[in-house]
């Protein structure tokens, strides 16, 4: 293993002593520090937020997003809805190759989308369930025919469901596709060492190669945010994700590194179990007014200031303020303990108790403690249960929780922020809240591409959601990275991903 491969995981005292001796890396190589090890590197199977960061470096999508939160071309140069919204025609970029030399053409697109939507193991099936069939018009034109209109399709194709892999490779490798993934992005897979590193090298035949200034990219797994920052300061890492807001002041005072800040559509929320088994049988799970009281007992501004140095965006709804579908009727509310107490009295509930499940990292635990202390002033009795992420996830899926704190990476299309969480059969609706009228509105909003019509439908659905409050949104994130001072060309996007096109470091 190289010096770069060994340094980060040494014990902190040794790492600190070596940091001063470390030298910057070659200008044509980039090292990125991640907060955790991704799951599968097959877009069909990937489900982790950190996995999307890695995908951005090697797996181009049919459609990308813009810095302003719109959509722009990537592998597809244009897309057009039919008048009845029952088909979406894509015009593909000419001359694109996968890393194994296979052509990225209409047949490849059909093979990928069919794999995503029909494979029993696919996590993309729900996103593409509206597809009836896929027609190859010619080598560079493909038409996606829908069984019913589905406006969020464009957004889905700007995420993992739109990541194109070599059909040659995934046909040969089958269920092992994620072990040596073959896409068409700027970098090609070299190796992966679990819990340590993932290495890629520049793909010489990349369609946008003139905008790639790096020869190799290594993603290193460094769970501790303080160690990620130490490695940036030492020069052993070029850019680190998910920097603690508490480190902002020290970063801004250090001329050898830089803070990069960007908007984020990701948000944290408290998910309430309202109907998923016996754990939902309590006043918080069964009475909306009690959930309203819990929300009012929280001071989001103080949480933001204490935990996130005031950099995050307090909120009570899934849509980020300033975006197209933000509902201005529901701005963030100030804390109101008296009103919270009154709601509990009206509901006939004194001192409601609740077990709140959190991940066992320092930030999540501290957030849970703040919620515990603030809500106690209104009469709530909250017990914290800190679990490893895998245990947390298993308990959530099984309905073995009363409430939990979780992050959602967010989607540009409002359907992706609302439907999975609040539709009766939504795959993220672990609390099993279900409202038939809400479901009907969300389904109708999926079937029109008219933005104004969709806004009106989501407004009606938001009235139902805000009254029932099956989830309590706390704030939207800001994406925070620490990078070497000589890193150039990195542009933040609202999805928080690290796009490597245009990025250089050192004298390169």
Overview of this protein structure:
The structure is a single chain. The chain is built from 17 helices and 17 strands. By secondary structure, the chain is an alpha+beta fold. It has 3 domains: 137 residues, D-Maltodextrin-Binding Protein, domain 2 (3-Layer(aba) Sandwich); 117 residues, Dipeptide-binding Protein, domain 1 (Alpha-Beta Complex); 215 residues, Roll (Dipeptide-binding Protein, domain 3), CATH 3.10.105. Strands 1, 8, 9, 10, 11, 12, 13, 14, 15, 16 and 17 form an 11-stranded mixed sheet that branches. The chain has a 4-stranded antiparallel sheet with strand order 4-5-7-6, with helices on one face. β6 and β7 form a beta hairpin. α10 runs antiparallel to α12. It is globular and about 70 Å long. The two termini are 25 Å apart. 48% of the residues are buried. The N terminus is likely disordered.
Give the gist of this structure.
The protein is 31% helix and 22% strand.
Helix share bin: 25-40%
Radius of gyration: 23 Å
Biggest sheet descriptor: 11 strands, mixed
What is the fold named in CATH at topology level of the largest domain?
Dipeptide-binding Protein, domain 3
CATH superfamily of the largest domain: Dipeptide-binding Protein, Domain 3
- Share of β-strand residues: 15-25%
E-strand count? 17
Shape: globular
Provide the structure class: alpha+beta
End-to-end gap: 25 Å
Number of helices: 17
User: Which residues sit in consecutive blocks of at least 5 with pLDDT less than 50?
Assistant: 1-27
Whole-number mean pLDDT: 92
- CATH architectural type of the largest domain: Roll
CATH class wording of the largest domain: Alpha Beta
- Total domain count: 3
